UniProtKB/TrEMBL annotation:
It comes from Sulfuricella denitrificans (strain DSM 22764 / NBRC 105220 / skB26). The keyword Calcium does not apply. GO terms for molecular function: ATP binding; ATP hydrolysis activity. SMART domains: AAA (SM00382). It holds the Pfam family ABC_tran. PANTHER family: PROTEIN TRIGALACTOSYLDIACYLGLYCEROL 3, CHLOROPLASTIC. The lineage of its organism: Bacteria, Pseudomonadati, Pseudomonadota, Betaproteobacteria, Nitrosomonadales. Keywords: ATP-binding, Cell membrane, Membrane, Nucleotide-binding, Transport. This is Putative ABC transport system ATP-binding protein. It comes from the Bacteria. The keyword Kinase does not apply. Residues 9-246 form the ABC transporter domain.
């Protein structure tokens, strides 16, 4: 695995607007290999839009987005396919195909992107299902038969099906009860270590920010308002950043974190 200081995502002077509404005025950030980088910020500040731009589901107005050193805007054909193989995405609602079993869902990227035999795909799917802590029996179930936490794990298994270098998680713990959320936190950290992943995640979950993220960028007012470890950010003077730490939810998460240590 390469060392630190190898940018995996580089966003430079990104500007995005919908009609007259400017979402990103001038966003700049770098995600380094091997880190868990979280994007936080109030609702509507443009986190999901940024994620969609990184994975080419949306076009910014101007600026640059490089993933693995290559500009993604205008990237097409084989280069785009190769890039997509190197990254796994878990969407907020899991986005599993309801008519397919968990094993078929997890095997889907392998069917799309490789020439592996069905038997081998089934074997790899079973390994990924075990890796995310689901029982073997979950493979033959349909998404609707699983709990919310199990569905997130199944979506995670699918996101790592192709052994990505970069894993993008959109609100991984949204909608989970605190116990399931905290076991998912542990799983994310465990997978990062085990698979040598770089992880970019969008989250509002303060426990995830404090407990799992190596660095955090807080988006707001069309730009990155603050960036660093949660400890660094807790010293920021910016009122919107301070709200994260010294608003009621922020204080509770802070206290919980220090009590755990
Ligand atoms: N396709 C679109 N057309 C028009 N406006 C859009 C579109 N997508 C997003 N927006 C607007 O852009 C802004 C940013 O949306 P986005 O979903 O990126 O925010 P967010 O930070 O992810 O919010 P949340 O935390 O609530 O998910 C919002 O005001 C949203 O209404």
């Amino acid at each position: 695995m390469s060392g630190a200081n190898e940018p995996i995502i580089e966003i430079c002077h990104l500007h995005t607007r919908f009609g007259n509404a400017v979402v990103h005025e001038d966003v700049n950030l770098i995600v380094q290999r091997g880190e868990i980088f979280a994007l936080a910020g109030s609702s509507g500040c443009g986190k999901s839009t940024l994620l969609r731009e990184i994975i080419q589901l949306q076009q910014p107005e101007s600026g640059s987005i490089k993933v693995f050193g290559c500009e993604v805007q205008g990237m097409g054909g084989d280069q785009a396919t190769i890039m997509r193989r190197r990254l796994g995405v878990m969407f907020e609602r899991g986005a599993l195909f309801s008519a397919l079993t968990v094993a078929e869902n997890v095997g889907m990227p392998l069917r799309e992107h490789t020439d592996l035999s069905s038997a081998l795909i089934d074997e790899i799917a079973a390994i990924k299902i075990a890796l995310v802590g689901l029982p073997e029996s979950a493979g033959s179930k349909f998404p609707a038969e699983l709990s919310g936490g199990m569905r997130k794990r199944a979506a995670l298994a699918r996101a790592i099906a192709l052994d990505p270098e970069l894993l993008i998680l959109d609100e991984p713990t949204a909608g989970l009860d605190p116990l399931s959320a905290s076991s998912l936190d542990e799983l994310v950290r465990h997978l990062k270590e085990l698979l040598g992943l770089t992880i970019l995640m969008i989250t509002h979950d303060l426990d995830l920010l404090w407990g799992v993220a190596d660095r955090v960028a807080i988006l707001g007012e069309g730009r990155v308002l603050g960036e660093g470890t949660m400890k660094d950010l807790s010293k920021s003077d910016h009122p919107m950043v301070r709200e994260y730490f010294y608003g009621p939810r922020g204080r509770a998460a802070w206290e919980q974190t220090w009590n755990r240590k």
